[in-house]
Amino acid sequence: MMLSALLLRKSEYQQLQAILAKTQKDLGADLVILIDRAGHEIASEGQGLTLDHTALASLAAANLAATQELARLVGETEFSIIYHQGRHRSIHISDVARKYSLVLIFEDSVSMGMVRWKVKRAATLLEEILQESRERKPTREPGVSAAPSFTDAEIDRLMRHLSPIADVEGKV
Amino acid sequence: MTFINYVAHEINCKIVYYGPGLGGKTTNLKYVYGITSPENRGKMISLATETERTLFFDFLPIDLGQIRGYSTRFHLYTVPGQVFYDASRKLILRGVDGVVFVADSQEERMDANFESLSNLEQNLKEHGFDLYKIPYVLQLNKRDLPNILPADKLQKMLRIKGEPVFEAVATQGIGVLEALKAVTRQVLVALRKTA
């Protein structure tokens, strides 16, 4: 089946948050955000910058995907890091376990060497937690939910949120 | 990949609009953006050329509300339809949960429809997905134009697995929400099957 949901225990989620929080604090970063390759935000840390996390996650995932294709074109297995340097603020995007990405936004006062070091460490720790949760099957074990099982009626109710020109019958 | 955050009670899914160039994929998204209330939608991003042809993708996040305590967020993407942007198209299919194939009903675009459909099958395969198993709907767009083929003929040629088919005029919003609802429903049902 195509669905391969990430099943995180609450404790694992808290561990992810703690790693992001430490990285954010150590670097004084404006924002640290963990995303998956489809461009969904998994967790984030940092209040210093108000921006659209959803848009950021989508663009960062696309950016990394495009960069990896460029790597393949020139015969590299990967370019695992993307760094965009701005006048006041920079973005660092790095690979985590080839399935996730860690995105950092920080001011120009932060040393690049420090960023690389802290990100590498964080990526290793994140990878351990994410790897374990990916390998887990949905179970009823305490603390781990199975994928939610919705009824047809519940799905119908949800569909009503897509505001209808419901009277248009377009079906062939 | 559907991302379910059990802690924050969120479900995030990815829908991709695929199809030949100038078929109306971006117009579908623009219509959805236009009729969705601001609190239920995010920013629409279009990475386009100077002539407004899709270069990489369009992106629109929409929030469908709560189901059994879970917030449901659908991320809608289009791919660039032009043949030579295949590398970009492939990237957008990463982690896809459902596909809306936007076919162009004009007779002279039939070859382009077939080429795009074949390209979709191939690109899905490279990501480990099977077109015959993935949530999928077919939209026959541009039904308002004069040189179109009859819907039943198009359906015979382009329908691949008994998927829902919708006649559409995306510029007027006809058949847009219907196609989106149908694919969304399939994604949620697929999610249920994994429970």
Label this structure with key terms.
heterodimer, A: about 170 residues, alpha+beta, Beta-Lactamase, 5-stranded antiparallel β-sheet, 5 strands, about 20% strand, B: about 200 residues, alpha/beta, Rossmann fold, 8-stranded mixed β-sheet, 8 strands
Unreliable spans of chain A are 140-144, 164-172
Helix content of chain A: 40-55%
Q: State the major sheet of chain A.
A: 5 strands, antiparallel
Number of strands of chain A: 5
Series of secondary-structure elements of chain B, N-terminal to C-terminal: EEHEEEHEHEHEH
Topology, pairings included?
The complex is a heterodimer of chains A (172) and B (195).
Chain A: H1 10-27, E1 31-36, E2 41-45, H2 53-73, E3 81-85, E4 89-96, E5 100-107, H3 112-135, H4 152-159
Antiparallel strand pairs in A: 1-2, 1-5, 3-4, 4-5
Helix pairs in contact in A: 1-3
Chain B: E1 3-5, E2 10-18, H1 25-35, E3 45-48, E4 54-67, E5 70-78, H2 86-92, E6 98-104, H3 110-126, E7 136-141, H4 151-158, E8 165-167, H5 176-193
Parallel strand pairs in B: 2-5, 2-6, 6-7, 7-8
Antiparallel strand pairs in B: 1-2, 3-4, 4-5
What do these coordinates show?
- The complex is a heterodimer of chains A (172) and B (195).
- With 172 residues, chain A is of the alpha+beta class.
- Chain A has helices spanning 10-27, 53-73, 112-135, 152-159; strands spanning 31-36, 41-45, 81-85, 89-96, 100-107.
- Chain A has a single domain (10-159), classed as Beta-Lactamase (2-Layer Sandwich).
- Helices cover 41% and strands 19% of the residues of chain A.
- Chain A has a five-stranded antiparallel sheet, with helices on both faces.
- In chain A, helix 1 (10-27) runs antiparallel to helix 3 (112-135).
- Chain A starts with 9 loop residues before the first helix and ends in a 13-residue tail after the last helix.
- Chain B has 195 residues and is α/β, with parallel strands linked by helices.
- In chain B, a hairpin with a 5-residue loop joins strand 3 and strand 4 (54-67).
- Chain B has one domain (3-193): P-loop containing nucleotide triphosphate hydrolases (Rossmann fold, 3-Layer(aba) Sandwich), CATH 3.40.50.
- Chain B starts with a strand and ends with a helix.
- The mean pLDDT of chain B is 92.
- Chain B has helices spanning 25-35, 86-92, 110-126, 151-158, 176-193, and strands at 3-5, 10-18, 45-48, 54-67, 70-78, 98-104, 136-141, 165-167.
- The relative contact order of chain B is 0.19.
- Helix content of chain B is 31%, strand content 28%.
- Chain B has five helices and eight strands; from the N terminus they run ββαβββαβαβαβα.
- The interface between A and B is large, with 49 and 71 residues.
